[in-house]
Amino acid sequence: MNFSRFDMHFSFKPMWFVAGAALCAAAAGAQGQPKTIRLIVAYPAGGVSDVVARALGDKLATQLGTIVVVENRAGASGAIGMDAVAKAAPDGATLGFSAISPLVLSPHLGKLPFDPQKDIAPVVSVMYSPVLLIATPASKSKDFRALVADAKAQPGAVRWATSGPASLGHIVLEQLRAAAGVDITHVPYKGGGQQLNDALGGQFEILSTNASPTLTSHIQSGKLRPLAVGAPARLESLPQVPTLGELGYNAANINSQFGVFAPAATPPALVAKYNAEINKALASPELRAKLTATDNVPTGGTPAAFAKEIASEFESNGRIVKAANIKAD
Q1: Are strands 256-263 and 131-135 parallel, antiparallel or unpaired?
Q2: Which residues in 108-147 are b (16+ Cβ under 10 Å) and which e?
Q3: C-alpha separations of 6 from 2, 9, 71, 98 in Å
Q4: Cα–Cα distance for residue pair 189/203, rounded to 1 Å
């Protein structure tokens, strides 16, 4: 993970809501909604996050009577896309769609080319994507409690695959290691394709990964077995699968949260307008159906509430990364 500059000592403060009176007046009066909005997606085309972002863009275009152009700027775990948002003109013509990880995890792993506190304004939380803990054909554990017992009985024998060092799945693993006092072998991958193929082939016992249609199809066929989920509540599609919080592992009960962001100096009036319109879009049956069909859960809320969640995650991830001595590739 190569970044050029970042000040590691900062705290998230909603400074984007403390613009001067002159700026607020200009935003409300002289500066109106742009005719075209560029929505930067921090991930490749075709993935679940891209599909959701495009569906959201379509809803915004209809609601606002404007053109929304989706632009994929993938790489560096979302940091490249967020850097493009940070450096865009703060005129309301650029928004970004990303997980919060470039703001709350990446800063603890290396230098970034932008400052998450000064350069990025949270607009609204859009969804959370659960982390599923999956047993492969190599696992004999009948449920998650049995998995922990097996790991204690045979230190290092249970192999746990993630999408790489410092990924969300790795964070879940480290939290579980600490809470349960177990020795589990981390098997890091780069990306999800080979990881899923090896899971089906029983190359390791456990896989932690975000929900996806492909994963769901393998669960439904019985090739893979879900043992637990990192989410605030059980998934509608997997009501029999407990959350890690229910199992007593609150610190490991984490998930990927996605949202919309703007350049930090974007006029507050436009941030408020986009927040209201996105909340409206998230309430529509069509968009909610598209989210829940992929086991993603719609969220919504205010910019201030989203900023508070980001601040909390930043502090929590900092402690985890330091305690486990996690390093990026």
Answers
A1: unpaired
A2: bbbebbbebbebbbbbbbbbbbbbbbbbbeebebeebeeb
A3: 11, 9, 25, 19
A4: 12
**In sequence order, what are the residues at sequence separation of 6 or more whose Cβ sits closer than 8 angstroms to the Cβ of residue 318?**
108
The encoded tokens of residue 187 equal 């098997």
- Which candidate, 121, 138, 200, 134, places its Cα nearest to that of 162? 134
3-state class of 203 per DSSP? coil
The model's pLDDT over 276-326, given as tens digits with 9 standing for 90+, comes to 999 999 999 999 998 988 889 999 999 999 999 999 999 988 988 888 888
CA 303 – CA 98 distance, rounded (Å): 15
In angstroms, the first-to-last Cα distance of the chain is 6
CA 226, chain centre distance (Å) = 20
Cα(91)–Cα(326) distance, rounded to whole angstroms?
A: 38
Backbone angles phi, psi at 125, to 5 degrees: -75, 135
Identify the structural domains of the chain with CATH numbers, from first to last: 15-129+256-324 (3.40.190.150), 131-252 (3.40.190.10)
Length of the chain: 329
The answer to whether the CB of 131 falls within 8 A of the CB of 230 is yes
- DSSP secondary structure letter of residue 243: B
The torsion of the CA quartet 242, 247, 251, 255, rounded to 10 degrees, works out to -10
Amino acid at 279: N
Token pair listed for 299: 């969220």
Find tokens 């967020």 and name the residue.
82
Over residues 226-257, the pLDDT tens digits come to: 999 999 999 988 999 999 999 999 989 999 99
Would you say the pTM of this structure is higher than 0.85?
no
Q: How many other C-beta atoms are found inside a 10 Å radius of the C-beta of residue 46?
A: 9
